Amino acid sequence: MKALAAAAGIVLVLAACSKVTQENFASIRDGMSEQEVMALLGTPTESSSVNAFGVSGTSSRWVAKEAVITVRFVNGKVALKTFDKPAPAP
């Protein structure tokens, strides 16, 4: 029982410490490197990359319960970013 309470407490602390915030999103600027964005938001929840004709592209998403930040990088630099809040459950 104590282990369950401790695990629930850790989950609550981690959720409260989410880096997926409107403030952190606003700090992301065009031209920032992937490393700079990861220093701000942490490791992305998911990421995919492609290379074609000498151009590399990566799309990374940071997903939290309250929001999702998506950043698209071209040649390792921020080219596009979006901030989405999931619709409330009915």
Mind explaining what this structure looks like?
By secondary structure, the protein is α+β, with helices and mostly antiparallel strands. The chain has a single domain, classed as 2-Layer Sandwich (Beta-lactamase Inhibitory Protein, Chain:B, domain 1). The chain is 32% helix and 34% strand. It has 3 helices and 4 strands, in the order αααββββ. The protein has helices spanning 2-16, 22-27, 34-41; strands at 46-52, 55-63, 68-74, 77-84. The chain has a 4-stranded antiparallel beta sheet, covered by helices on one side. β1 and β2 (55-63) form a beta hairpin. The longest helix has 15 residues, at 2-16. The radius of gyration is 16 Å and the shape is globular. Residues 4-16 have low confidence and may be disordered.
Helix tally?
A: 3
Radius of gyration: 16 Å
Mean pLDDT: 86
Into how many domains do the coordinates divide?
Answer: 1
Question: What is the gist of this entry?
Answer:
The chain has helices spanning 2-16, 22-27, 34-41; strands spanning 46-52, 55-63, 68-74, 77-84.
